[in-house]
């Protein structure tokens, strides 16, 4: 028992081992050579590219009958039919829905004609 005013020698406990043992692991570094295969680095063969059957060019001719003109026209986006589903597009990004064609553009007045670039209509997916 200890009495008031008495002293006792302090005996430290055994040295504690660190709870956190971190080892220098290089697993978080990705080897650049493992990302791309030889197939990814190869350029596409010119024979695999779409060409017009009559002219042999990658652009469809005026009276195209091979279907390249139709395929290219389907790829174009119809800018005239872009409409808002919520009707709040003119208020700004805070009021626009996620699929709004005006997303990222400044607010505008109701009825004002706003031109949308084709690059803004292409999905990021």
TrEMBL record:
Cofactor names: [4Fe-4S] cluster
UniProt-listed InterPro entries: Anamorsin, CIAPIN1
Subcellular localization, as worded in the UniProt entry: Cytoplasm
Single GO cellular component term: cytoplasm
Gene Ontology process terms (BP): iron-sulfur cluster assembly
Protein keywords: 4Fe-4S, Cytoplasm, Iron, Iron-sulfur, Metal-binding, Mitochondrion
Main subcellular location of this protein, as a coarse class: cytoplasm
Protein name as it appears in the record: Anamorsin C-terminal domain-containing protein
């Amino acid at each position: 028992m200890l009495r008031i005013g008495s002293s006792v020698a302090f005996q430290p406990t055994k040295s504690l081992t660190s709870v956190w043992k971190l080892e220098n692991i290089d697993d978080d570094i990705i080897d650049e050579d493992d990302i791309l295969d030889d197939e990814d680095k190869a350029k596409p063969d010119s024979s695999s590219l779409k060409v017009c059957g009559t002219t042999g060019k990658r652009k469809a001719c005026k009276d195209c009958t091979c279907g390249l003109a139709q395929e290219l026209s389907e790829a174009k986006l119809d800018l005239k039919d872009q409409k808002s589903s919520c009707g709040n597009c003119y208020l700004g990004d805070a009021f626009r829905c996620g699929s709004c064609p005006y997303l990222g553009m400044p607010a505008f007045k109701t009825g004002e004609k706003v031109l949308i670039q084709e690059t803004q209509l292409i999905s990021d997916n």
